[in-house]
Amino acid sequence: MSQSTVRLPLFFPLFIAAVVASSSCVQGNPSLPPAEARPREVAPSGDLTPDELATISVFEKASQSVVFITTAALQRDFWSMNLFEVPQGSGSGFIWDRQGNVVTNYHVIAGANSIQVVTSDGKEHKAKVVGSDQDQDLAVLRIEAPPDTLSPVKLGSSANLRVGQKVLAIGNPFGLDHTLTTGVVSALERTIQSMSERTIQGVIQTDAAINPGNSGGPLLDSSGRLIGVNTQILSPSGAFAGVGFAVPVDTINRIVPQLVAYGKVIRPGFGVIFYSDPIARRWDIDGVIIRRVSPGSAAAEAGLRGSREMRSGDVMVGDIITAVDGKKVSTVNDLRDILDLHKVGDRVTVEVLRDDARTKVDVTLRPVN
Questions:
Q1: pLDDT for the residue 311
Q2: Model pTM score
Q3: What is the pLDDT of residues 248-291, one digit of tens each?
Q4: From 37, 42, 97, 167, which residue has the greatest number of CB atoms within 10 Å?
């Protein structure tokens, strides 16, 4: 059996020689690289400023209350007609109490078939909706977790906020969990619109960066107390442009206990049906026109009058509400915003225009749907 021969390229000896030479050079010359190629010495650090230390402290404590929320919705396959879940979106929230109640925005969980909540310890919990208020864009979820693992957020007040004071926002923008941004209160008493097209009053404006995924997360003061829920941004691009809005904590503290107890907000009202604002404008009427008074309602008891719709199609206009407790009413939202500041059992003075004459009627508010 003859021995086979493998022919190498002509340059192979030169290649081997170059490798050997290179290897021996490295091993035989362990000299240091030039000074400009060496790692630089680390300069000694200075002490953190009191403001930095305060911010770090607030974040480390408050972030334990912040949760990451993901939702999924059902979708039907066009060909097989089978149902399956698809990711819908994500947002933020915070622990309200040790019973496992979590507060977030309504729009974060709207239309969701399933909801997952990830707490600060990284554990994932299946959540159910306890209650929601679309008008104020708030919702309460509940998770099953040991009470000693839950850290409820500290509550502050939005009644005494001042433009210019420092605020901190913690959330999950673009899915980046537990992101901290800081800023100031840019303005107070702003008005934004909810998904139900109701106005949300007393809103806090801030320049702390808020992006998609921050919705439902807490806005905190410099003491780490909750002062609002980050809800909307004003941006032509859809990303943060320096203007963010938060529902004030005083509104949250009024609504959340009702959502926990009843699953909805028990709103005070008159027990009447109104004509829409466009109809009132078309009739050149400044105020809210009562269309019908429900029998046995607070309005009926107080003697408020509804309108009469004739067979001819003409309408005999009833009482026109122009003010409540001295506050001007021009639209249905105006009236609802005023009533939202009251509770069931409160007595209010309603100013109405009746037969071209102005009169005042006292009404005791009752629960309405």
A1: 79
A2: 0.77
A3: 999 999 999 999 999 998 888 998 999 988 899 999 999 999 99
A4: 167
- Per-residue 3-state assignment (H helix, E strand, C coil) for the chain: CCCCCCCCCCCHHHHHHHHHHHHHHHHHCCCCCCHHHCCCCCCCCCCCCHHHHHHHHHHHHHHHHEEEEEEEEEEECCCCCCEEEEEEEEEEEEECCCCCEEEECHHHHCCCCEEEEECCCCCEEEEEEEEEEHHHCEEEEECCCCHHHCCCCEECCCCCCCCCCEEEEEECHHHCCCEEEEEEEEEEEEEEECCCCCEEEEEEEECCCCCCCCCCCEEEECCCEEEEEEEEECCCCCCCCCCEEEEEHHHHHHHHHHHHHHCCCCEEECCEEECCHHHHHHCCCCCEEEEEECCCCHHHHHCCCCCEECCCCCEECCCEEEEECCEECCCHHHHHHHHCCCCCCCEEEEEEEECCEEEEEEEECEEEC
Distance CA 356, CA 358 (A): 7
Beta partners for residue 320, in sequence order:
289, 353
Please provide residue 336's backbone torsions phi and psi, each rounded to the nearest 5 degrees.
Answer: -65, -40
Cβ proximity of 219 and 168 under 8 Å: yes
Tokens read off for 104: 């977030």
Q: In terms of Cα–Cα distance, which of 107, 108, 214 is closest to 169? A: 214
Catalytic residues: 107, 137, 215
CA neighbor of 225 nearest in space, from 177, 140, 139, 166 = 166
Which residue reads 């009053």 in tokens? 201
User: What are the CA-CA distances from residue 30 to residues 17, 36, 105, 336 (Å)?
Assistant: 20, 17, 63, 82
- How far are the Cα atoms of 16, 26, 84, 124, 141 from residue 23, in angstroms, in the given order? 11, 5, 61, 54, 66
Q: How far is it, in rounded angstroms, from Cα 85 to Cα 106?
A: 20
Q: What is the C-alpha separation between 354 and 329, in angstroms, rounded?
A: 15
Nearest residue to 179 via CA among 108, 106, 90: 90
- Tens-digit pLDDT profile for residues 120-154: 999 999 999 999 999 999 999 999 999 999 999 99
Q: Which of these, 366, 257, 359, 282, lies nearest to 318 by C-alpha position?
A: 359
